[in-house]
Design a protein that fits this description.
single chain; alpha+beta; VC0802-like; 10 helices; elongated
């Protein structure tokens, strides 16, 4: 691994450093000395400084993240629950989608092994009627849905998802679930973390992060 690769890796695993770098709050040489001392790096100070400057340049060139969030909107919905099941049967999923009572507010995310359903808390028992007990893997209660809607899909923007998750992590909030259909991000956190999570995302939209 080269000096540049290792320095990039160390920066990427430290959200505080990323935040300070992207806002111009860190001196490259001071950061180089910090990394060398903390991780016992064997590279020269000049090599580490060069790698840090390369990171800053590449990040600025390849990521127009501020523009990506400009004009975005944030909506919230409380009293939601996420039900994780081990089913992948299309007929079963189809029968749930045909349930008019559930389909009004249902969110669905499906992988090869699991299918997740997000509904209002009051609809949970109705949803459970569609499954056997051993088909239910996990029930996550007391969630809030934060719906982040961007103005454009931004499919080619590097680091879009990592910027969102890093922003929430900086507020020390664990993300419970996510559903992504660009340009829309559905982010689920515990209700107790809801206000802080909204603040974090509003700072992102207002370019305060």
């Amino acid at each position: 691994m080269s000096a540049t690769q290792e320095v990039f890796q160390l920066i990427e695993q430290d959200l505080a450093i990323i935040k300070c770098l992207t806002n111009g709050l860190l001196n490259s040489r001071a950061l180089a000395k910090f990394l060398i001392n903390k991780y016992n790096l064997l590279y020269t100070e000049e090599a580490v400084v060069s790698a840090i400057r390369r990171y800053e340049t590449d990040f600025e060139k390849d990521n127009k993240l501020g523009d990506s969030f400009e004009g975005g909107m944030l909506f919230s919905k409380s009293d939601v629950v996420c039900l994780t099941t081990n089913i992948s049967n299309q007929a079963k999923i189809g029968s749930i989608l045909q349930d008019e009572e559930l389909n009004k507010n249902l969110r669905l995310s499906r992988t090869k092994k699991y299918t997740k359903f997000v509904v209002y808390e009051k609809e949970l028992e109705k949803l459970k009627e569609h499954f056997l007990v051993d088909q239910i893997v996990l029930v996550q209660n007391e969630l809030i849905e934060l719906r982040l809607l961007l103005k454009s899909p931004n499919h080619d923007t590097i680091g879009l998802l990592s910027k969102i998750t890093a922003q929430i992590a900086l507020y020390n909030i664990p993300i419970q679930e996510m559903i992504i259909t660009l340009p829309e991000f559905l982010i689920y956190v515990k209700e107790k973390d809801g206000l802080k999570a909204q603040e974090a995302l509003m700072d992102l939209l207002n370019n305060k992060s």
